[in-house]
Predict the 3D structure of the following.
Amino acid sequence: MVDLFFVLSGFVILHSYGDKIGRSTSIIRFMFLRFARLYPLHFALLLVFLVIELLKYIAATSFGIASNSPPFERNNFEAFIYNLFLVQSMGLLDHETFNRPSWSISTEFYTYLIFACLLLSFTSKPSRWIVFPTITLGSLIVIVSLGHHSLTFTGTYSVFRCTFGFFIGTIAYLIFEKLNEAKLSEFKSKYAPALTYLTTVCLLILLWTKRDNWIEFLVPFVVAALVLFLTLSPTSILSNMLLQPFLRWLGKISYSIYMIHMAVLWGVSQTLNVVFSFPATVEGNDLVFQTSQLQGTCLLLAVLALVLAMSHFTFCLIEEPFRKKAKSWVNRIERTDQATSG
């Protein structure tokens, strides 16, 4: 599902900045606003996982409590520096470190930079029909040449997984622009809603099939088609469902959900293991608890509620304040520059 967000990001960013970068918005302003959107929560969670490593170290040295993943073994100083500069997914590490989901934040930030540079280099809209598909195809070729037979990889050079999905999203937006210019009212009213339902079914089928195989490469294309048809039919039943308050709230806090869920899972796992001595087995670096169906369902619901509650908390205290301050700061600088030049 991460690839869904890559595709959606490409569609939305091109819609928001396609006619602004290089004109009303400088590349520095664009990257600063993207940085302010992604980095504060990433940095906060990086510190949280640094504290977790310290707690594991104290538990091991002072209380003889061994962790299934030794402290500072994978999450060492080198990995911390890479995470600090958002380069942990740029070929420097072959495994995830600290807050695992942050690999995609690393790739997305530098994909934004590539996108902005492309807009500055290729200013005409027709050139985008050549450049964006070329980047998409090039990303796919690199992924396959690196030996990946699916999109399920998060380590070395996973930036190409991001550029693959992101620029598929930009292509979907180019198609949306063309269809809008053509003013195909009958297509929008009759066919777009039907195609929305069809692509939704196709996406669900793809997500239910066996993972880690070539069919995963189809997911970004189907997601792009779904986003396109949803945008073309804003009054369809599915579009109206997505506008319901609860789903809008989930969308608003989705970045926080994605970024904090591993920290919540670690806290719950340690509580069950250390405090309640729940029976568990170690699979890789994770604890897998042996529970009854009822216990497992209750734990799942409790963890879900905790993730949602904490996501709302981090959105209100970290995401939203930093986003507003960054936008206000940039606007203030621009007003000062305009007054000076005037």
Remarks:
- The chain has a mean pLDDT of 87.
